[in-house]
């Protein structure tokens, strides 16, 4: 266990200086795929669980003891569609997660000269396949490593690459306060025609606190989570999410994003029926970009 911890923290501090030099590409990796977390303004590094944690912080895959499969469809703005499928398998002290994230931008015009009508249209494609492993180091600390295979295609040119994530979750036993951190998308891409796209390497840090409203277990809970996100090639931003849970059946969510010029407020809800959980998020944008709708369906087992 001590050897694993040493390797974990050596990787974090040795890779961070390299990551800060990158300029962003493959921006689809920054789009939050799940409806719950989108409704909460993108927070989740300290509170996500199950298959949704494969994106935010795989160290939380065992959070709440949830194993399951997830499919999410993101109807983003300007004919952009993102889909996410993930599953996690929890053991006594470790967990494994697998995810597939892909995005397409449709009907991009092609012109060989400045004309009113384009010569034609094409679609842009991006995809990421991830494999995550997490292990409980103690009752308080869980660590996780993730490997990713990446693919991008623009017009007739395509490229592949590899990336990795390192994440951690910390929680005191029987405490409503939890912390999470994740260093994501460290790696490189092959050349797309003549140049390589740089990855949007980012660092997420968050804290979550759950208030028990009725004092009778966790049936009625108010969860607050605050995240700080630094995308090393762009500006940092902060996000605050509030989630009210009613009898582990209905969830109401509200989020607010600071430091983003195109969006601020988001909201949504979740409903559980037996082993199925449905989540919805609505994200309005400014600057006449329209709005986004995110739908997520989970099967818990």
From TrEMBL:
Record keywords: Signal
Coiled-coil segments on the chain, per record: none
Leader sequence segment: 1-24
InterPro entries reported in the protein's UniProt record: PorV
SUPFAM superfamilies assigned to the protein according to its UniProt record, in alphabetical order: Porins (SSF56935)
Keyword Transferase carried by entry: no
Domain of life of the source: Bacteria
Residue ranges constituting the Type IX secretion system protein PorV domain according to the UniProt record: 24-229
Protein name: Type IX secretion system protein PorV domain-containing protein
Origin species: Chloroherpeton thalassium (strain ATCC 35110 / GB-78)
